[in-house]
Amino acid sequence: MINWVANPARFTRLSARAMPWCGWGAAAVTAAGLYWSLVLAPPDYQQGDTVRIMFIHVPAAWMALTVYLFLAVASAVALVWRHPLAEIAARAAAPIGAAFTLICLATGSLWGRPMWGAWWVWDARLTSVLVLFFLYLGYITLVNAFDDPARGGKTGSLLALVGVVNLPIIKFSVDWWNTLHQPASVMRIGGPRIDIAMLVPLVIMAVGFLLLFLTLLMLRMRTILNERKAMALRLNAEAPGPRSVQERAMVVHPGAG
Amino acid sequence: MAAFVGLFRRDLRLAFRQGGDSGLVLGFFVLAVVLFPLGVGPEPAVLQRIGPGIVWVAALFAALLSLDRLFEADYQDGGLDLLELSSLPLELAVLAKCAAHWVATGLPLALISPLLAFLLGLDRAAILILCASLLLGTPALSLIGSVAAALVLGARRQGVVLSILVLPLDIPPLVFGAGAVEASVAGMGARAYLLILAALSLAALALCPWASAAALRQALE
């Protein structure tokens, strides 16, 4: 299965067909979810209309973790099976995940001001998500810090795997420490402890965000593939010769060396 | 085992020789801490309050300062290739280098910290806890740092990339290290914090050599 999809040409064909569906799906689902959550859903009995920030904040937080998990799995696949496409997927996912993390932090800050009376508190949940953001930045920096893109991809993959340590810390930070941040109320043993009128738009928004991630991921992966192709063509035109043949192969298929 | 001890002693000798890292790091640590009273004013109440945090952050930066030399010199002169070829597993070689790094930087920092804590006006109990927290926590700094130092070998602008990688990963030791002293000052007892610090160091001891060795193998490919 992985082998079948890992062919860059096949991926380009498939993604060209899947991207419009994902993109328009993301737009439609997110629009419906926004209308539902901002207009139809009832205000909270304690928090009033402020609770509507949740419909952006919580899906963004889920995506921040999900994308990191995706990054780590893609990195592991890239390290173990040396699939060029897995490394490209990891590289493409990182800025999207960083953006979701930033959205999560920003909306959380906006929500914290009226509810807790502070833009920011140094509790375990907030700090660990901030660390997640720095991990994303570290990955992006490290991947781009090498002259050889293949080396950058492999090294970044190792860092992504090291950073997985942070994921359980974020997930369980609200259970392990006494925090201002409320404990899990959707994914908990014994079922969600949130009213169905709010749960439905929340799930719709989460699906919308997921589709948005898939669209952006395919777009970025295609861009990276095209960039590499363009670079290979340029090298081809500029420096023909026996030595550059291997270099050209390296650019198109990093990890081949 | 002989190779392990040999590598450890070689790194240690290099660190303590003239122009080595140990003295520089210690000097940086003392200077950085002494700058704070000059910056925030000599008020004892303020210094006592922020003292533990200052010492821990300074220790973090001091440890960071020497990390780029952990593998870089050996990487440049080819010593690392020989290490990979030797009978000593690369994981153990990393462990030997980390141990030497800790003895050359972490241990002196912890030993001189009572003097600095005294300058910052901490009381005797807090000084003891601070020293203990540094003794327990600095091994984690060396080990976590070794992963990052191995990852950035051959990168452009290594120093900057290294700090971006290390500082977020060093947050847990920092939180529990400074937290230990604060808890003891607040009368809650530092035991739990010190135990968590020790756990962090042990976890780093078990996991980091593998990650560092994997990163080194990639750099040497």
Whole-number total of structural domains of chain B: 1
- Biggest sheet architecture of chain A: none
Report Rg of chain B.
18 Å
Largest interface: A-B, 19 and 22 residues
Shape by Cα distribution of chain A: globular
The percent range for strand residues of chain B is under 5%
Helix tally of chain A equals 9
Give the helices and strands of chain B as they follow along the chain: HHHHHHHHH
> Which blocks of ≥5 consecutive residues of chain B have pLDDT under 50?
none
Q: By helix and strand content of chain B, what is the structural category?
A: mainly alpha
What fraction, in percent, of the residue positions of chain A are helical?
over 70%
Helix content of chain B: over 70%
Number of separate helices of chain B: 9
Distance between the termini of chain A: 24 Å
**Strand tally of chain B, please?**
0
Q: List unreliable stretches of 5+ residues of chain A.
A: none
Number-wise, the strands of chain A total 0
Q: Average pLDDT across residues of chain A?
A: 83
The average pLDDT of chain B is 88
